[in-house]
Amino acid sequence: MHRCRVIAILLVTGLMLAGCGNRIEMNELGITTATGFDGHQGDWTITYQVIIPPAMSSGAGGSSGGAGSQAAVHTFSAHGKTIREALASSSRENPRKLYFAHTNILIIGKEAAETGIEEILDTYYRNPDARETVKVLIANGVARDYLNKLIPPEKLPGRALSKILEKNKQLSSYYPSVSVHELALGISSDSAAAGVPQISIKGTDSSSLESASVFQKTSTSSNLEISGLSVFHKAKMVGTLDQNESLGISWLTNHIHLTTISYNSKDATDVSAFLVRNAKVKVTPVKGALHYTLKVKAKVVVGEFLETTTHEDLLKTQSIGKLEQRAEEIIRSQILEGWKAVQHLKIDLVGIGNKIHRKSPKDWKRLKKDWPGEIANMDIDIDVKVNLKRPGLFQSSFSRLLQSDED
Amino acid sequence: MLKDWIKSVLKPAKGSSQDVEKSKHQALNEPINTSLASTLSTLKKRLGQSPDFTIRDFSGDPDPEHTGPLAICYIEGLIDPGLLSDLIESLVKETAHTPSNRLEEYLAASLLKKTLPAGNIQIIDSLNQIYQAVLTGNAVIVIDGLQSALAVSIAGGVRRAVEEPTSQGVVRGPKEGFTEDISTNITLIRRKLRTPDLKFDSHIIGQYSQTTVIVTYIEGIADLGVVQEITKRLQTIDTDSILESGYIEEFIQDAALTPFPTMLNSERPDTVAGSLLDGQVAILVDGTPFALIAPVTFYNFFQTAEDYYQRYDISSFLRVIRLISFLVSLLLPSLFIALTTFHQEMIPTILLVTLAAQREGVPFPALLEALLMELTFEVIREAGVRMPRAIGPAISIVGALVIGQAAVEAGLVSGAMVIVVSFTAISNFVIPYFSMATAVRLLRFILMLLAGTLGLFGIMAGVVPILAHLLSLKSVGIDYLLPYSPFYKSNMKDLIIRAPWWAMKTRPNLKSGTNKKRQASHQYPVGSNNIVRNSDEPEPHA
User: Fold this and answer.
1) Do B256 and B396 lie in a common domain?
2) Partner-chain contact A20 B361, CB within 8 Å
3) Do B457 and A33 touch (CB under 8 A)?
């Protein structure tokens, strides 16, 4: 009986010590929606975008009134020799416990990206409160400048940025959406490369975005937008690709979800737009006599025919075939553009290294010594098959219709 | 220490009081005096000159020493005046025609054989029996010179009519409920089950209340072992009074220390009849409309009479809703506390921000806030039960304003907490049986405290022992969580899902005895295919 009681008491105290004793009320939390890293090893500046909950929900109880004119976030910065020191020193100016579990986006400043992001990744993996699923953006400048900008009509800029990445990935597939974990996987793989979307400030007078008064205007003179793809080799950023090149990489890495292809004939009389519904791209490195050749097989289902001024008769199978051919050409050129960028940078963004390593480890041992050179010498063989599934019930284009009236 | 204390409290008190009562018993068990006059005076003395105790001795002489050949005594409120006047009329006729010698024996025999216009006549021969007979609504005929008396059952008096049950109503189904009168209740069950196998075993329990307690079961369907066990437990009860079936429940339930009810109470004759047909045993108690049903399992508390009258699809859906409500009512406040104070990462961002915005400026920690609200609700609920019916609307207005709007507007509690507490309260009312609902009400507070100190971990530390406790519970020897634990596939047709009637061919066989078959098989509705219309008949007009 006595022993039972002692065991019970020990068990209960065990529960208390198990790490669940860290009770904290919601109104003591500084919920961060975005984090920014600037600086370099030995001198970090960390910026937090903390949500102000009452400003978020209009008409909530307690404090009331004027919720519309108040910015929903506040930005703090802190310096330190290490990231965690900077975090610790943030308590000097912030009354709340910073809470990272709901962070939507991580913005890395250009300087930090160029000098190396090992330390950032390390803190993300080492600390349970920061999630590796946070999306990453590279700032075209200092991250702090991006975190204090509002993005109308969204109230939380951090959330807005992560939504932009997500929607872009779903609807146009120009840029990939990369999480901390994916970034770490990419740069630590055999290919040692990863592409991360880059964000820039467009337009003039960007300081107007720093006040909640932007919500009262119908347009702003400047805004934030994704402008390119930062290319990482190991932990350092080595270059930037533009949108077309990035789209090519998306094709090559089979990251196309939904995208629009536009065709324009040389004399600009014949314009068509296709919606890619489903794309399966298979990239296989094939061993040649001297070098590896990259075999790209793309099976693309063009769901809808979005707009056209073609004079072809869409009822005929031949003309559908013609349109399909055009789409194939465009896709091929897009893939080529991406590949050219890869060869130019000599960085394996496509992940061919991983594939060769898996397929023939012996070859990889030999190739990995001069892998960048190997990429530059690699040939590519592209085979695109487009299937135009739904040309639609709307048969002839207006151009054709009006032309036939003239006859 | 606590356990010892509880044991000492729960232990039946040993003392000399029992022996005293026994000797009293023997003293009362004295035979009836042959002298009518002395018997009547003893009766008068014993019953304390009560104004409702009446003796009619047909002598016309005010002197109590001079009596007629017989006397009739009864208590006014307990008998039917019409039957009494019939009885007196026949007595007067009989005494007028009898010869004066050997009057008494002839009289008794004649009365018994032919004259008395009543169904139930008993010969009694001790004073104690006279008291009992008089107090249970008999007219006792005491005859001068005889050592026995006749008890004629003419029970009647003021009773509540059969009305609609107030706490267990239905939309579709019989609308009659039990009353306080046990013979009415027996009749109500008899009318549903007209079989000689339906047995009523009567017991008298309670030193002072002398309450009739009746064990009802269907021979062949009920497990006789269970009937014997219940009878045995009833016979061991030695108490002053049984004023409600709750007394019996506490005396004979299997586990003394449990918040969960191990007997079901119902005020519906159809529920009792249905339970009897499932092989359960019912205990009717005089003076209360609530009958006890045992043995029961946990899932019986989520089945209502209406489940069997409505279509099976909606019944099954409603049962799922009830089980969910049970869980919500048990866990929602504690989950809310755990999530908002320990595991904010589990709440979606926007929801978290909304909740945090409401908490801004709330002075109490979430646990205290929840406890305050729950206690306020319990107070209002208790007030709602106790207050005079005329001021009911006042309470609901004050309750709605105090718990709801005013508390939020004053910034004392957050709006989300009000929603959580109200939803919990409403879910609690979905549980069909009040005794199960109260168990949940108590456990909720324990879980809230655990959640407030240890988060989800604490909830698990509370739920697992509750589950273990449920697994160990038994109701008259039947496992409480049957048929899920131990698992019996054959009993699954009437649990969370209520199978259509034609599919329930057997009774839940772990509660019942030998007769397991409920109905013939192959009763699947065949539809209109087998309707053959006579071609000579004119077609019905469209």
Assistant:
1) no
2) no
3) no
Q: How many residue pairs bridge chain A and chain B with CB atoms within 8 Å of each other? A: 99
Q: Does residue A400 surpass a pLDDT of 90?
A: no
Residue B328, domain extent: 312-479
Long-range contact pairs involving B112-119 (C-beta distance under 8 Å, separation at least 24)? B112/B150, B115/B90, B115/B91, B116/B87, B116/B90, B116/B150, B116/B152, B117/B83, B117/B86, B117/B87, B117/B90, B118/B83, B118/B87, B118/B152, B118/B153, B118/B154, B119/B153
- Which among B341, B456, B461 has the least Cβ separation from residue A24? B341
**Residue B211 to residue B237: CA distance in whole angstroms:** 12
Residue of A nearest to B457 (CA): A20
Which residue in B414, B458, B461 is closest to A61 by CB distance? B414
Question: In this structure, are strands B281-285 and B291-294 parallel, antiparallel, or unpaired?
Answer: antiparallel
Lowest-pLDDT range, B5-19, B123-137, B421-435? B5-19
What percent of chain A has a predicted confidence (pLDDT) above 70? 93
Residues B387 and B465 in one domain: yes
Same domain, B233 and B330: no
Tell me the shortest Cα–Cα distance from B332 to chain A, in angstroms: 18
Number of domains in chain B: 3
Structure tokens at B117: 């216009």
Interface list for B 391-450 with A (CB within 8 A): 408-409, 411, 414-415
Residues B267-324: tens digit of each pLDDT: 999 999 999 998 899 999 999 999 999 899 999 999 999 999 999 999 999 999 999 9
Same domain? For B342 and B261 the reply is no
Same domain, B316 and B292: no
Whether B112 and B242 map to the same domain: the answer is no
- What is the least distance, in Å, from the CA of A154 to any CA of chain B? 12
d(CA A114, CA A101): 27
pLDDT tens-digit readout, B111-123? 666 666 666 778 8
Name the residue in chain B with its Cα closest to that of A67: B357
On whether residue B494 sits in a domain, the answer given is no
The reply to whether B250 and B288 lie within a common domain is yes
**B319 & B404 share domain:** yes
Residue B158 covered by a domain: no
Closest residue on chain B to A158 (Cα): B349
